[in-house]
Amino acid sequence: MSMKTLDDLFVHFVRDIYYAEKQVLKTLPKMARKADSDNLKDAFEHHREETEGQIENLEKVFEILGLKARGVTCEAIDGILEEGKEIMEEATDADARDAGMIAAAQAVEHYEITRYGTLVAWAKRLGHTKAVPLLQANLDQEYAADRKLSDLAEGGLNKQAA
Ligand SMILES: [Fe+2]
Ligand SMILES: [Fe+2]
Q1: Dihedral angle, C-alpha 143, 148, 152, 158, nearest 10 °
Q2: Looking at the CA of 109, which ligand is closest?
Q3: From CA 113, how far away is CA 59, in angstroms rounded?
Q4: Nearest ligand to the C-alpha atom of residue 116
Q5: Residues lying with their CB under 5 A of ligand 1, a single-atom ion
Q6: What percent helix, strand, coil does the chain show, rounded to 5?
Q7: 0.90 surpassed by pTM
């Protein structure tokens, strides 16, 4: 597709993050199953529910743009998720695996934060006023998810065991 104008790029990024969210939606249940810590398991399950809502928000953005909802392959998220999969499969120690999954999940959150941050700014600049709160809501959830993972990494993993 054409990426000549900011409008083109905006649409490309919406499709990119739509693809990314769908991949993340498929991956989070696997991560929840592999998590040893109950807190981490809950965090992954909670974010899976949020991700469903984020996908619905993106479908509304497509509607606002008058476009059919569809994704474009995003090699960045594929690479980040592939790395996470390797960690899940190869870490034999449960604590190491949880720590590795947190690191992998934070890489996903940071990717999403950078995309939604750009999309919010561009939606404002391009006058897609109705898309702004939908994209902002997703951005806020990604920030919250990232903070939660930081808390877990900093010792919240096994609060009940401490
Ligand atoms: Fe997301
Ligand atoms: Fe996320």
Answers
A1: -170
A2: 2
A3: 18
A4: 1
A5: 21, 54, 112
A6: 85, 0, 15
A7: yes
Q: Is the dihedral of CA 92, 95, 99, 104 positive or negative?
A: positive
Arch. (CATH architecture) of 6-161 = Up-down Bundle (1.20)
CA of 4 from ligand 1 middle (Å) equals 27
- Tokens representing 26 are 């498929």
- Only one residue has tokens 């190869």, namely 90
Q: Which residue has 């909802």 as its token pair? A: 69
Contact between residue 117 and residue 140 where contact means Cβ atoms under 8 Å apart: no
Q: What is the pLDDT of residues 121-161, one digit of tens each?
A: 999 999 999 999 999 999 999 999 999 999 999 986 665 54
31 residue type, one letter: M
Q: Which of 145, 132, 104 is nearest to 14 (CA)?
A: 132
- Which amino acid does the sequence have at 96? A
Ligand closest to CA 147: 2
- For residue 120, CA distances in Å to 38, 42, 65, 98, 132 come to 34, 29, 14, 32, 6
